[in-house]
Every structure is written in structure tokens, then in C-alpha cells.
Amino acid sequence: MAKKVILEAGRTFSEFSLLTDYTSKDCNLNNINLKSNLGQLSLGIPFLSAAMTSVTGYEMALALGKEGGLGVLPARLSIKEQVDIINKIKGYEMGFVEDPVSVRDNATIDEAVRLVEKHGHSKIPVTDRNNVFLGLFNFDKYLESNETPAENILSIMTSVDELPHTKNSEITVKQAKKELEENNYLIVLDDLGRLEKIAFKKDVENIVVGAAISTHKGWKKRVRACDEAGADIFVIDTSDAYNEFTSKVLKDYAKMKLGKPICAGNVITYEGAKFLMESGADVIKVGMSSGSICTTQREKATGRAPMTALMEVERARADYLKESGKYVSIIIDGGVSDAGSMIIALSIADAVMMGGYFNHFFEAEGEKYDANMQQTTHEPDIKYVATWGEGSSRARNLDRYGHVARKTFFAEGEEGTVENWGRLKPKLKQDIRKIKAALSNTGCMNLKDYHKKATIELMSPYTQNIVGDTHDMKVKE
Length: 477
Hints:
There is one protein chain. By secondary structure, the chain is of the alpha/beta class. The protein has helices spanning 58-66, 79-90, 109-119, 139-143, 173-179, 219-229, 244-256, 270-278, 296-300, 306-324, 339-345, 356-359, 398-401, 424-442, 447-453, 461-467, and strands at residues 16-18, 36-38, 41-43, 47-49, 70-73, 97-98, 103-104, 123-127, 133-138, 158-159, 165-166, 185-189, 195-200, 209-213, 233-237, 262-267, 283-286, 329-333, 351-354, 368-369, 384-388, 415-419, 456-458. Helix 8 links the parallel strand 16 (262-267) and strand 17 (283-286). The longest helix has 19 residues, at 306-324. The chain is globular, with a radius of gyration of 24 Å. It starts with 15 loop residues before the first strand and ends in a 10-residue tail after the last helix.
């Protein structure tokens, strides 16, 4: 008989509901931040794109990095390919946003909101008919106000006198960077006050990027090359990290004394997580068979419901913290595909890694197809994006799945397509606002507070039908 039989069913994120708590007047979307730490590495937002060749390359790592997240470059790339992408990201130069999207002074708030939803910008310039800059529409400020969508944009606009701006239209990037030391953005006008361009602080800050490595021969060479190029974190990427090989890599990495955090995964049990923590992992990655393209459970009956796995790893972390005094960050990897799942996952995890979610965007590495499934690079025609798992027949990532040779390989992932959601920024910004709104409901100003104060409740299947979705009506098409 098996050593242990667990009869309690595993749990997923959608089975839980977040309960409200007292919210102060200052606990609003403008004041809530989602910064998170992975070991010594600080992220502006708690999101990582998966180390999948259909997802993360230069464009994804750059786009997510500019928003404050982290792209993890797949280990299946050659060392040179990883290094070239890291060099390109670290060499990215801030530029001005020329001819920024704006609204006229006779526009309604609703018109500005539509632009926010389309482009992902949280701030929209307001100009008159001659392009004279009058002020900014701040979407987050609007959400906290009592203004209605039909009202004129001027009723909620922050006027030019209250905003950081310059009438030096010849300002250089170097000069703008100096100004951005004190402000999050700088509006550049000409001598007549007409809008020329905008510079943003987030485009000046260091863009972080991670490099995935395997436990197989050559990993040290990869680490040294990527470290020299400027990688900020290394991620041991194996489907099952509860083994001797991962432990040895962690111990050998510590001897390299690079001063950069190392993440190890994936694990799904208390014992596996504690083992990696004791072996020196700064960050633990959790999940098996919960990814949208993963078939590990189907093929070899191995895996675990993601919320149950996350709770077990959190239990290991709490015990290890008591024993060692070291806090080990946790990344949930798999089973998170929407804002609701992110909200529940982040009640425990420090960050969320997603493949399926980011695969939907234009910046993903997968080929793009039109409505007739013809490959295209013309952005307006893109309807679908190719996706494949690292364990699929296409990727054949033998190192990640522990196959010693191609003749022993069997697929543990699928290949297909997902719907195109367009550019990353608008959808990501929308989901960030939902997460901040949830934190506001709990009275939490940041993720550290949220970890301490959040209360989540398991729902029955019947409750999920009533609370989790609309019911007793026909939804308008």
C-alpha cells in the first residue's frame, strides 16, 4: 500500500473567496503598491513571464520589465541567445513618448476612459483645439472620485500648474533623467504651451531580467555568461526539483558568490520545499501539472492542485523562518490565468509566474496567425498566437523533464494556439487595478500587509455558482 493516502481533495484558486476588512480613507488605488521582493531583487509588480520558448524572448522581457515585472529567459535558448537578449535589455535607452495620445477639452470622462482601456495608459493629456496643454486626466484619481462618465473631462482634470512640466522643447534625454529623479513623469511643452512629448520615470529605471538554467552539465558556464551580461536572478527550471541534482546546483551556486538571488523549482510538497530551502534557495517556485498546456498529470499521474501546493510550501516556509531566520520568497507557477486567481494566489505567494496568460499577448514569442490561420506579422490582422509547452513534442526540453535522451522522451505538454489579446500593457494594467481594488477591500496598502491580514474562505460548489458568477439571468451579448 502507498506510504500515505490523502483523502482531502486538492484546491484551486477559484474555490476561494476573499473576505473584506476595514478600509481607511487613504487605502485607495492611488496609494496601494504591489512591490514585491524575490530574495534581494525588488519588483515593481509581482509578475513573471514563464521560461517558455513560446512566451518569453526580448519583446516580452522588455515589455513586462518596463512595467516593473520580470521576464525569465528559457534555458532552452543557447547561452549566446540569452546573453544577447540580456545585453539588449540592459542597453535599452529611455526615449520620449512623442505625440502622446490625448483628448480634447470638450471630451467626456467616458471618452478618456476608453483611451485608457485601449492603450493601457493611466494618465491622458488634455489639450485645446490648438494642442495647448491644459492638464492630465488621471484614471486612478477618477476611480476615487464621484464624477460620472458623462461629465466633461475638465471636471476631473489636474491642471498644468500642478504638474511637473517644462517649456524647453529641446530638452535632452540626459536633462530629462535629472528632472525625473524628483518626479514620476515630465511633460514637455513648446514656448506657446503646446504639448510636445512626455518622459516617464519607469523608462529610466533599471529593467530587470531573469535567466533560467538547468541542473545539467554547462549550467555554470551559462550562469557566468548571463551574470556578466547583467542578469538579475537565476531560475533553476526543472519540472521536479526535489532531487539531488537541484540541491547540488544550489550549493555550488552559493560558492560562486555572485550576490544575486537563485530560485529553485518546481516543487509541490512541504518536504520538497523545505529541502530546497535548506539547500540554499532564496526563492521557491511552486506548481506541477496546473499549467494550461501541461499534461504531466494525464501522462504520469503526477501533480497537485495549485492552491493546496502553495499552502503546503507556505507551511514549510513558516517553519524554516522560525528555524533559520531567513524568509524565502515563493512564486506560484501554473493555474493562474485571471485577476481573481492572482488575487487569491497573492494572499500567500510573493509573485505569480504565468505562461498561458502572457502567451496571449502580441509580445509573446509564438507565431501569429490571422482568422484563416495564415501566419502574419500585420498586427491588426492577428487573431491567434501559437503556444507550446516546454514538455511538448515541439519544444522537447529534455533537461527540464528529466529525460536522459531523446529516445526516452514522451510529451508532457501540448501545442496549439490561444486568442490574441493585443499588446500587453492595457490588459496587464487592468488586472493590476483589480488586484489593487481587492487589497483596498481588505484595508491593505501593500502585499506585505495583505499576507498578514487577508482572510480567504473556501466555497462549496453551489456557493461558487451563486457568488462566483452571474445567475438567474441572460447576459446581454
